[in-house]
Structure formats: C-alpha cells, structure tokens
Automatic annotation (TrEMBL):
Stated family: Belongs to the AB hydrolase superfamily.
Enzyme Commission number: 3.4.-.-
InterPro entries, per database record: FrsA-like, FrsA_esterase
MF (Gene Ontology): hydrolase activity
Keyword RNA-binding: no
Catalytic class of the enzyme: hydrolase
Name of the protein this chain belongs to: Alpha/beta hydrolase family protein
Length: 399
C-alpha cells in the first residue's frame, strides 16, 4: 500500500520539475521507517501547488511543517509520552532536511533549519530505548568528522562486523538512518553513519569540503572503527549512496581493510556528469540546485569546482579493489545513466563482484531506488551481512 502511494505520488507531484518531484519522493520513501507521514507530505505539496520552481516557497512550507511536527513532539514529551514524541521528532527531521536542501546561499535561516533537523534527530534517538546511539567525532586531518554510531553487539565483549555508511552529494548521517540502518542492526551489523567531506555538518559547520581522494576520510573511519572493542577489525565494510557510489568504491579500492563495498548508485566519471549539466545550463536532472556544487567544493565558481572534479574518475582506481563489491543501480536513473554502472562494474578488479540493476517493472528503477526502498534495502543489507559474516539478531540492540 505505502509503496503504491509512493509511486503514485512520484508521478503525480510536480511532473514538470524533476528536482521538486524527486525530493518529494525522497520524503515519501522514508514513510516505512517512520521518517514521514503521507498526509503531512500531501499538505505541504498542496500548499506548493502553483508555485513550482519557487525554492523560497519550498523552504518556507517544509520548514513550517517541521515546526508544526516538532511542536507535537514537545507536547507529547511534556505529557510523558516518549514514544509519540520520538515519532514526531523523527518526522520533523525529514521535513527540515527537505526544507534546507534548496536554500542558497546557506544563510542564517538555512543553517537554523539545519540545526533544527540535527536537534530533532538527536532528540528522537534519546527517546528511542531500542538502541544505544552514540554521537561521535572521527579524527580527520586537523579536525573531525561528525558521526552517529550504533553497535549491534548483544553482550559485553562481543565484537560485531561494522559498516561505514556515507550518503552522497546532498545527504547526511541523519537521513541515512531512514535508509536501512535499523535493518543492518537487526542483521548483526554495527553502523557508523558519517557526515563525510562536503556533506552534512562537516561542510556546514566545520568547513570540510568535497575532495576527490575520498580514501582519506574512508581510512580515517576505518581507523576509528578498528579502535573500538565492540567491532571486529577484520570485518569492516563500506556503504554509500548516490555520489557515495564514488566514495565507497574509491575508499575500498585504496584501503584493503574494507572487506565489502556496496556502491548504492554508480559513479564513473563525475567530472563528465557535471560538465554536461553545466553545458546544458543546469537543465539536466539535478537533485539540488546547481549552486550546491560550488558550495560543497568550497570554490568560487563552477569552473573552479570542475577543476576539483577532475579527480572524480574511477577508471584507474577500481581495478585495485580486492574486497567483495556490490553495485546497485536503477535502469531509469535520470541523474546517472545505467551505462555508467556497466563501465564501473567491468572495470572493478574484485574477484567477488555483483551487479544489480532494478527495473521499472519490479520498482526501484529511479535514482538509488527511492521509488521502492522496500525491495532495495534488504538486498543491499543482506549482501553486506553475508560478506561480513554477520549473525542476525532476533531483536533490536537495546541500551
């Protein structure tokens, strides 16, 4: 039922604007994991009808819904209803996330909305007695990357496999939660969800820009995971989506400590992708406004940003990969062509590699399967748990 609603909404909402439609789909996609409510999303979309392309209106309406649902959370908390408050804070997280995505420049209003998103997720985690959520800093060069770690260990002294989970060009560690973190935990895999360079709090509040040599961040996370006494240092994997398909592929190719790598969306030549977008005056399908590129790379112009992207090519990198490799892509991905997935898969040097293309007939054909997460997430996480030798837990990890 929910999957059917998601698909219908994807085709019905803002058909003349891919970016707006795709971002509504991002919100609808997390309904099963408690990240949104279809009625609340529908109310926002009704208010936006007739204003397609007005990103200021988008910001105001989604932020207003975030404020409204956060107020519900605070009321429930005052009543002592922890469970209701947790659910409301979770949904507010998604609505603030949606609001801030299109806001450029990242002025005080934008950053305030982002802080509200971070705060709401933290409060939801504090109220969720099923998990022990740790907010952590992963040492990185002269600063640190903010992360959320949840252990799947069921008893003192147990060491579990762990996955470094990164988002992509425009996601964050909080949104990752709704994309399968709880499913990984149930399969006995601990998770470090990380705001990596150019992403989330790392770029907004710590000035850590996007970079091509992503193994610097990946290896820093591997160091941190290997330093924990509840993680098996020989069973570490990496998962990342969208542009994260580059992050994970490069990190696993350059650091053999990653025994399994899942690229949730293929990236082959990101410089070419953006060159084509710029040449088309940003008329091609984009998940966020074109300004995001200059901002996330910490540059002053699109041409300078393109210079940063010169290194975002995998042809000479992925032949080095030795660990297991899973590549997942949608046949109707409108941001990155499916042909790039075939190029990446063929070039990968892993002796254990799997290519999974989701079709329109089965669902999941859109970018990173946001049109049907319910079939994509179990496949990805089952593969990771299998390659990392995880033993599924019968119940969620408790505090």
């Amino acid at each position: 039922m929910v999957a059917a609603i998601r698909q219908a909404e994807w085709h019905a909402q803002f058909p003349e604007d891919y970016r707006w439609s795709y971002n509504v789909m991002l919100v609808l996609a997390v309904i099963p994991s408690g990240g949104a409510e279809v009625g609340e999303v529908d109310r926002v979309c009704r208010r936006l009808a007739g204003h397609v392309g007005d990103d200021e209106r988008w910001f105001r309406e989604w932020r207003a819904m975030g404020d409204q649902v956060r107020a519900l959370a605070e009321e429930a908390r005052e009543l002592g209803d922890r469970r209701a408050a947790m659910g409301h804070y979770r949904r507010a997280t998604s609505y603030y996330f949606a609001a801030e995505r299109f806001r450029f420049p990242k002025d005080d209003e934008a950053l305030d909305a982002y802080r509200a998103m971070v705060d709401c997720f933290r409060l939801s985690a504090e109220l969720d007695d099923r998990y022990r959520v740790e907010y952590v800093d992963v040492p990185y060069e002269d600063t640190a990357l903010p992360g959320i770690f949840v252990s799947a260990a069921r008893s003192p002294g147990e060491r579990t496999p762990a996955v470094l989970f990164m988002s992509g060009f425009d996601g964050n560690k909080e949104h990752n939660w709704f994309l399968g973190v709880e499913d990984l935990l149930a399969r006995g895999v601990s998770v470090l969800s990380l705001d990596s360079p150019g992403v989330g709090e790392a770029v907004r509040f710590r000035g850590v820009s996007l970079r091509h040599d992503y193994e610097v961040a990946g290896s820093a996370a591997a160091d941190w995971l290997q330093g924990r006494d509840d993680v098996d240092p020989e069973r570490i994997g990496v998962l990342a989506l969208s542009l994260g398909g580059y992050y994970s592929s490069r990190s696993a190719s350059m650091d053999p400590r990653f025994k399994a790598c899942a690229a949730w969306g293929a990236i082959w030549d990101y410089h070419r992708v953006w060159s084509e977008r710029i040449e088309a005056a940003f008329a091609k399908q984009l998940p966020v406004p074109g300004e995001h590129l200059v901002w996330s790379t910490g540059t002053g112009s699109t041409q300078e940003a393109l210079q940063v992207l010169e290194g975002f090519r995998l042809a000479d990198v992925v032949p080095r990969m030795k660990g297991a490799f899973l590549l997942v892509h949608g046949e109707d991905d409108q941001q990155v062509p499916v042909s790039d997935a075939h190029l990446l898969f063929e070039a990968c040097g892993s002796p254990d590699k799997t290519l999974r293309i989701f079709t329109a007939e089965e669902g999941g054909a859109q970018h990173c399967q946001m049109d049907n997460l319910s079939i994509a997430v179990p496949e990805i996480n089952r593969w990771l748990a299998d390659r990392l030798g995880a033993s599924a837990t019968s119940s969620a990890t408790s505090r």
